[in-house]
Amino acid sequence: MNKTIEIIGAPATFGQRKLGVNLGPDAIRYAGLVARISAIGHDVKDSGNIQLPELDLNKFNSEQQGLRNLDEIVETSTRLSDAVSNSIENNHFPLIIGGDHSIAIGSISGISKHYKNLGVIWYDAHGDLNVPEESPSGNIHGMPLRVLVGEGDEQLVNISNYTPKVKPENIVLIGMRDLDVGERRYIKEHNIKTYTMAEVDRYGIKQVMEETIDYLKDKTDGIHLSLDVDALDPVETPGTGTRVLGGLTYRESHFAMELLHNSKLITSMDLVEVNPLIDHNNDTAEQAVGLVGSFFGETLL
């Protein structure tokens, strides 16, 4: 990779109910993110954290139009979209560190305007494909991918004044093991390429990643990786807010990142849902940094 890797922090906690994920970007930096990427030989620019709405604990989890913290997420998404778009205009590789997964609304909104057919790899335990009327919780971190395909709250759908940001046929879901009824229906109706943990067990992570790359490479002109650390099994990676047992192992995920690096197709990345307040000794942030190292080409020899 000959692009400067630009780190953009988005310390947002508005998309879900647990405090602490807003500390994720700083925990990831503290775990040695910049040094790890620089040691591989890349140029790194840490642009710090974007300015976010004030976190008012008296209003946290407020509902607007049935959605929790909607106004704050609209503002966050707009600012993040602008920052990420600017990064691409400067010919940088944007690495966005969160924050909860609602930040993908902003990051992908800023990215997709620069591509005709953006592909998205959603590496996660959850599909994040809910719409407000079907969401069991009203938490927007369970809705970003559906927003990005053009469905949901009008303000969120139209971040950066265009929609949709991604087509269903350009999405691959990996690591799925907790899908709501509406999400299952949407995946089936739109034939979204999906690898549940059953498929990962059956085929192995090597085949899953190779099929993902083959599926996206010829019909997209850029591929965004959105990596939620809850894709990994919480026995190994406890510092995240929506844990689901039976996930991907740390070693499997390292190999997945190595295969994505070797493909030379990934053009941007999110790393989200690290919550140091419920972690053990910052282990989850350190593991996240290790995965980023593999993604950017780190090898033992």
Automatic annotation (TrEMBL):
GO MF terms here are: arginase activity; manganese ion binding
Bound how, and how many: what does the cofactor note say?
Answer: Binds 2 manganese ions per subunit.
Q: What's a GO biological-process term for it?
A: urea cycle
Q: Has keyword Hydrolase?
A: yes
Q: Name one GO cellular component term.
A: cytoplasm
Q: Does the keyword Hydrolase apply?
A: yes
Q: What is this protein called?
A: Arginase
Keywords tagged on the record? Arginine metabolism, Hydrolase, Manganese, Metal-binding
Could you say which enzyme class this protein belongs to? hydrolase
Name the pathway it acts in: Nitrogen metabolism; urea cycle; L-ornithine and urea from L-arginine: step 1/1
Task: State its cofactor.
Answer: Mn(2+)
Tell me which CDD domains the record gives: Arginase
PANTHER family in the record: ARGINASE
By sequence similarity, the record places it as follows:
Belongs to the arginase family.
**List of residues binding Mn(2+) 2:** D124, H126
Q: What is its EC number?
A: 3.5.3.1
Query: Per its UniProt record, what InterPro entries does this chain match?
Result: Arginase (IPR014033), Ureohydrolase (IPR006035), Ureohydrolase_dom_sf (IPR023696), Ureohydrolase_Mn_BS (IPR020855)
Residues annotated as binding Mn(2+) 1: H101, D128, D228, D230
